[in-house]
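hey so i finally got around to running the thing on that chain from the lab meeting. sorry it took forever, my laptop kept dying and i had to restart like 3 times. anyway pasting the input first so we r on the same page abt which one it is
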Amino acid sequence: MRLFILPFLVITILDESYWVAFGLFLLAGLSDMLDGLLARWLKQKTTLGLYLDPIADKLLLSTLFIVLTHQGLIPRYVTVLVFSRDLGILLISTLLFATGTLRDFRPSLLGKLNTVVQVVGIVSVMLERLWPTAWLGAITSGLLRVIAVLAPVSAAQYAWIVFRRINAPTAAA
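ok and heres what got predicted. didnt touch it at all, straight out
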């Protein structure tokens, strides 16, 4: 559902229809939550879902960062840091997976926090378009600064975790 909603979300943001964009973003979030709840409740886990879910999440967030930056609502440096982190993680995990070096890429607590703050930051940016107030502007600005710090810090943590796991002595040794 998130992948289907994404182009319409981009169009509404580019058209500055922030009420509709906010509604579509909420719908995407609700569909993600419902999908996760149903999978747990029905005890259904598929290989496709294991790959597609994080891809859909990253595609949604990355696209929103680019479009909101294009609209002048998110500073370029924040989007560059977010994108650099995600691209670096994608390249490293693809390389390690393809070579059979490492195939388990669970997100760290800091990585999960990074994602939550990114989602809250995007919500804040859109809410500021709907209700422009000084306090919401201050919250948005603060969230974007936190994102700018969390993105490279969580990337460094991810690299450290991967480095330790690759260089850990094997059980056979």
